[in-house]
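Hey, quick one: can you model this chain's 3D structure?
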Amino acid sequence: MLRTFDFNKMPVVEVVNEILVDSSKRGASDIHFDPWEEFMKIRIRIDGQLIDYAEVPNIIKKNLVTRIKIISGMNITESRLPQDGAIKATLQDIPLDLRVSCLPTSNGEKIVIRILDYSMSLAGIETLGFSEANYKKVLQMISIPNGIILVTGATGTGKSTTVYSVLQRLNKEYTNIITVEDPIEMEIEGVNQVQVNSEIGLTFASALRSILRQDPNVIMIGEIRDNETAKIAVRASITGHIVLSTIHTNNSLNTIERLLDMDVERYLLASSLEGIISQKLARRLCPHCRTKRKATHYEKELFQKVLHRDINEVWSAEGCEECGNGYKGRIAIHEVLLINQEIRDALSEGASKEELRKLVYQAGVNTLLQDGLEKVEQGYTTFEEILKLIELDDDDLSGENDLRSAIDTARIAIDQKEDEENKIEKEHQEKTESKRNVSAPAKMNDSQIINAVE
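Sure thing. Here's the predicted structure for all 454 residues.
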């Protein structure tokens, strides 16, 4: 149901404030202002899904965009180039910390507002949804005196939340923590945070060189984006520092390959890399209305092949007044690799991808699919969410766990089930139509009977 605003009576300032506050109350992570030819459509992203929120007529569109650009510190006279801004304010007693991006399109300027929520980071590592085994690995990782720890995943998978949670744990009186970020998403008391400014030459690489002369214990790099940053980060971790960073890869094995592609020397990577945390976000089942249902054949088969467990029931989404569609919030699916001596030796000796895969996934690593299915069994999310989330190439299981075959079987079964349901429904409609025609024959007049006989 689209929300309507009376633009004739309601000032644009109040409209913008109401959109920001209402989106925050609904738990949205992003607000999209999409310019169409006839109007501007506003959509909000809740639990990873974009939903329609409101429509703005074209006569109001320019005023709305201008208001957002003013409060986010953008140049209102520039409409041909992309711009970035930020909003930090308290509206209706709700503190808002927003990141704003403006992009020129053929129909006008598109604006996306990211709503930053620090509640998960402030709550601590233990609230991030790690399994007991993965949680112990993470604690072991961050207790090392030096080395590099990487948090990996696609955009919007909660990497920053995990990194900030680790920083909160490491933030003690006797530690000197320095971060290099673009932008600084969360201000932490007691942590020295540096904002990257490439226009004046303050890049990740140049900032890192200066940081090493600041006697740091812990260095956090917002993101490893290029070869130079990767090399300096690795060398910094060897010289006695804990280095935390994020990188856009899907899993542990891909992360190692990505760093090697960035021309990081194998012997340096082998001696510096301590751990990799890969994650994705799945929609969390609403605890008020979730129900159990009988597991299908393909679900039983996948659980048996991946987890070696026999299941008869799985949780499913229903929908209630609390959630609307059966889901409320999101939960992280993790893959945590703690580097052991065998992996270090294989890295330094130039082992092939196949050899590394065997070593990585034989080192007690729960893959993303395994962790996801365990959360399905525990009732945190649904089987459909995990199947949609995990791509075939993202999860490497070797040997008897024939993942590709298992998921292909599952997807074929889903398609067959849908085809059967459609076929049954079509046959039912045809039978109903046939009965209706038989029970109510059409009456013909005399001329029609004569024509029919002739």
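One thing worth noting: The longest helix spans residues 403-439.
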